[in-house]
Design brief:
The complex is a heterodimer of chains A (about 350) and B (about 160). With about 350 residues, chain A is mostly helical. Chain A contains 14 helices and no strands. Chain B contains seven helices and no strands. Chain B is globular and about 50 Å long. At the A-B interface, helix 1, helix 7, helix 12, helix 13 and helix 14 of A face helix 1, helix 2, helix 3, helix 4 and helix 5 of B.
């Protein structure tokens, strides 16, 4: 494409977007301040505490995250080492903190991150031993961290069951029993060590799954014909097919556009009179059954003003012209969109 | 659709906005020399129109406020050898490491990979963010398709 050919297109870019700095990667802990700044413990304490091999399995279970042992310490210094994966959830943590664990009564493993924003005692976590039933009050932000920090972990079903009892505070608890969550069997069961990778880890897992399933529901409403589908895999396949078909349609229509009007001498004034933009009552040929109920019905509300070259427009003029931009037209397509 | 604690914002402008942008881009295309020259191959024109469609869609749908549109515009600008840098408004960092460390459900991972290849800019996103973007992308795509369909219908001789 010639340089000037897209000048017009891209020229708007400069107008629209300021040339700022587009940083592709950020330092890992650039966002850490809201959370880290509140910590006020002595890192040394934690480091010492966690370097002990109370949770050796944790390190082993986490081959992907080499820095995992670091945030066992939960120290302020530990946070910068943490994978940045924790940080994005800070947003929802702040906003949605209410539904996370306010307090975790059943003491889980001590291998938790503690954000001592509330003056939480570090010593609780430092003392390890994995003994459960120790009261530990977790600030909400901490649960955020814990979730994200230990993403690697696969939960074990046992701790999950405990989860369901514990986290009644969570809003998502109710939703967690929905069927479109991945069945637990998909996960590799961790060694069921009591008090070990904990509530917090499974919490992390569960939060993430909840988010994903919520968005799946959103997508399910978007993609036509997916109301009956349950299950992530099929749903995702449907979504992918739908996106592909839409993209193919764009390509196909652009091909058609290029042939229909080779000179592209579209008079914008006429077009902006909205005549052209009104749909016509015409079915695009389809090769499949249309399961999409919402594409039915037309709005034959086209006025009869036509330019001579656009005499193809606007056959009907039955209803009054609808000036609102609520256009729907008789548009049928199938997922397998064959070009003819 | 917005839940109380995490509203997923996927509003899309009306069809007019898309139509306007697309027509503007097309008219820009028209003023180029290369477009109306007779020795232009059809495939080139098609590609240009397609690119125009995507770019106008990206711009109409929210410019640089959405990840996919931002990456689309960036790609398009790069193709023109223009170093356009977008100012990131809401600073959401792409934690690539996070994505790599997104273990877990093999079912969803495979499909998520495919989705990432489809949706522009999906490479650096986490799965939940990816799905948000996909939802918005689907809405915009369908809007764009409607616009183009109407245009084609309007322009085709009868």
């Amino acid at each position: 494409m010639g340089g000037e050919s897209n000048e017009g297109e891209m020229g708007l870019n400069h107008g629209d977007d300021q040339s700022g700095i587009s940083r592709v990667g950020m330092p890992l802990y650039a966002k850490s301040d809201p959370f880290f700044s509140s910590t006020d413990w002595d890192p040394a304490v934690n480091v010492g505490g966690f370097s002990s091999s109370h949770y050796p399995s944790m390190g082993m279970d986490n081959p992907g995250m080499s820095c995992f042992p670091h945030y066992q310490t939960g120290s302020g210094s530990g946070y910068p080492d943490m994978p940045a994966s924790l940080l994005p959830f800070g947003d929802c943590g702040g906003g949605g903190g209410g539904h996370f664990l306010g307090s975790d009564k059943k003491g889980e493993s001590a291998g938790r991150l503690v954000i001592a924003g509330d003056g939480h005692q570090v010593s609780d976590d430092v003392v390890l031993g994995g003994s459960s039933n120790r009261k530990r009050r977790q600030p909400e932000a901490e649960s955020q961290w814990n979730k994200k920090a230990v993403e690697e972990f696969q939960e074990d079903p046992q701790s999950q069951k405990k989860q369901k009892n514990d986290q009644s505070k969570e809003k998502m608890t109710k939703e967690s029993s929905q069927s479109d969550e991945a069945p637990k069997e998909n996960y590799i069961h961790m060694r069921a060590r009591r008090g070990q990778a904990t509530n917090s880890h499974s919490l992390a897992e569960r939060v993430r799954r909840e988010k994903i399933s919520e968005r799946m529901r959103l997508l399910q409403e978007l993609v036509p014909g997916c109301n009956k589908i349950t299950g992530k895999a099929v749903m995702l396949d449907e979504i992918i097919n739908y996106v592909q078909s839409l993209q193919q349609q764009v390509e196909f229509l652009s091909m058609k556009l290029s042939t229909v009007n080779p000179e592209l001498n579209i008079d914008i004034d006429r077009l902006l009179a909205k005549d052209l933009l009104q749909p016509r009552d015409r079915n695009t040929p389809t090769l499949g059954l249309n399961p999409f109920a919402r594409f039915q019905g037309t709005i034959p509300n086209i006025s009869t003003t036509t330019a001579p070259q656009y005499n193809s427009l606007l056959p009907q003029a039955s209803n009054s012209r609808n000036n609102t931009s609520c256009f729907c037209h008789h548009f049928r397509f199938s997922y397998t969109f064959f070009f003819f | 659709m917005a839940s109380a604690y995490n509203p997923i914002y996927t509003d899309v402008p009306e069809k007019d906005v898309f139509a306007l942008h697309f027509l503007q881009t097309l008219s820009n295309l028209r003023t180029q020399n290369s477009f109306s020259s007779p020795d232009n191959k059809t495939s080139d024109r098609v590609k240009k129109i397609k690119k125009a469609a995507y770019v106008s869609m990206a711009r109409a749908a929210g410019g640089t406020n959405r990840l996919w549109s931002r990456s689309l515009l960036h790609q398009a600008a790069k193709r023109n050898n223009k170093n356009v840098r977008f100012l990131r408004r809401k600073r959401r960092v792409t934690w690539l490491m996070r994505r790599r460390s997104n273990r877990g459900d093999p079912i969803e991972d495979v499909a998520a990979e495919r989705l990432r290849n489809l949706v522009p800019g999906g490479g650096g996103m986490e799965t939940s963010k990816l799905m948000e973007e996909t939802a918005h992308y689907i809405k915009c795509l369908s809007m764009q398709v409607k616009v183009m369909q109407c245009l084609v219908d309007g322009l085709s001789p009868k």
